[in-house]
Amino acid sequence: MTTHAEVPTRSLSDRATATTIGILYLVGTVGGAASLVATGGGLEGPDYLASADELGGGLAVGAFLVLLMGLSLACIPIVAFPVLRRISERLAVGFVVFRGALEATWYVVTAMTWLTLFRLAGDDAAAGDGGIVLFTAGETGGILQSLVFVCGATMFYLILHRGRLVPRWLTWWGLVAVIPYALVAVLGLLDVLDVLSSTAAGLQAPLALQEIVLALWLIVRGFSPRPEAH
């Protein structure tokens, strides 16, 4: 009889799962980067609607790209769940909730907000307080979404680490990189740091790079074939 410590090597279905996760990560990354290109780096400042008016159709394109990014990333926990639940069902469910349901909801709201701005941008009557409210709500919501992301990412890396699904250096990289990422969100909420500044981007860069490396690893190598150690 096979004991819990004698888990067999990863199956072909696990290999397909790893590849799919890697592809979804890359699609999400490309979608996010393309949305910044389409919107010229994003919307910012008190003249939120004036900026939206200048962007024109680029804002609508950016909204759809954000939606593509969000849905791609939200699919990762769902695809990964059958594999991750073998390591820790509790963490796997948390991953689905935070990186799936909650994060996907925010991306949908962001896309809807950008599309609303696109439709209202040329309306001078809506350009006053409406622009300020949308800007403040969007910025605050984005910071809170970062905290949701950090919680979900931490759960994911803990499962990968515990199950030795990928090399330990890769999971430690993720676990350490979430710390400065979370710091940006906390300082942003306290209005100490501009979350759109180059400093914030530098603090978030290690985790962004880690996700790209993780995606490529999963596509090329898949999950580790070694048995899990408990």
TrEMBL record:
Pfam families the record matches = DUF4386 (PF14329)
Q: Does the keyword Transmembrane helix apply?
A: yes
Annotated TM spans: 21-39, 59-84, 104-122, 172-190, 202-220
The superkingdom of the source organism is Bacteria
UniProt keyword annotations, A-Z: Membrane, Transmembrane, Transmembrane helix
Q: What is this protein called?
A: DUF4386 domain-containing protein
